[in-house]
Amino acid sequence: MNTKIRAVIFDLDGVLVFTDRFHYQAWKKIADELKIPFDEQINNRLRGVSRMESLEIILEQYYGTPLSSTCKEALAEKKNGIYRELLTQMSSADVSDAVRDTLTQLKKKNCLLAVGSSSRNTRFILERVQLTDVFDAVADGTMISRSKPDPEVFLKAAELLKIAPGQCLVVEDADAGIEAGKRACMRTAAIGDAAAHGKADYILSSLTELLSILDDKKR
Ligand code: BG6
Ligand code: MG
User: Are residues 117 and 211 in the same domain?
Assistant: First the structure.
């Protein structure tokens, strides 16, 4: 029988908040300047992947003069500046009722809550949408050396929560994140883009469905 789930570790971008459109807009500007094709399909490959790795994926279709690592750093920095500017539009109104209600209900069930995100902007975003105080732990891109599909960020979240990985459920919109959750020996729930791929233990059409997963006594 499975161990009881005592903690839920949420990915941030695309699960708690819909910053994916801002990532898209910012990368699109960079790609357009370099005359590189960039569309939603390529953008989906960037889910859960670190900033520099995202740039490398975008550059797969760049056939101009080879770019030095300094130049790549500058491009990533520029993208982040555009992205951070877009993020300033965000407020608590950008957290859906489904997200807020689910977090509140999970807390009522004494479930530990954490964020496990590759983003180095995690703290900034949580502050903007006023979610910082909701979580018992936040593991983010500033604390890890390997991004998803490596399990590091989720294992870090479990360590901060002082809980065994087997007692955690990861919620993800990225295939890379589902793989990371599995490699961390955690249970996984897919929402959004990752839900279409059927690799997770649970497929969610809404975050509120987490509540019945946690209630399921057979789990
Ligand atoms: C992840 C996003 O959460 O964070 C990726 O899904 C993004 O698309 C990554 O590249 C890194 O984000 P940031 O904010 O550090 O550039
Ligand atoms: Mg995500």
Answer: yes
Domain that includes residue 147, residue range: 7-17+94-215
Q: Is the pTM of this model over 0.85?
A: yes
Which protein residue has the closest C-alpha to ligand 1 atom 4?
A: 119
- Tens digit of each residue's pLDDT (9 = 90 or more) over 54-106: 999 999 999 989 999 999 999 999 999 999 999 999 999 999 999 999 999 99
Is 161 found in the same domain as 69?
A: no
Residue type, 192: G
Residues 83 and 107 grouped into a single domain: no
Residue 172, CA distances (Å) to 55, 72, 148, 209 in order: 21, 28, 11, 14
Give the end-to-end CA distance of the chain in Å, rounded to a whole number: 7
pLDDT, mean over the chain: 95
Task: Pick the atom of ligand 1 nearest to 122's CA.
Answer: 14
Q: Which numbered atom of ligand 1 lies nearest the CA of 117?
A: 3
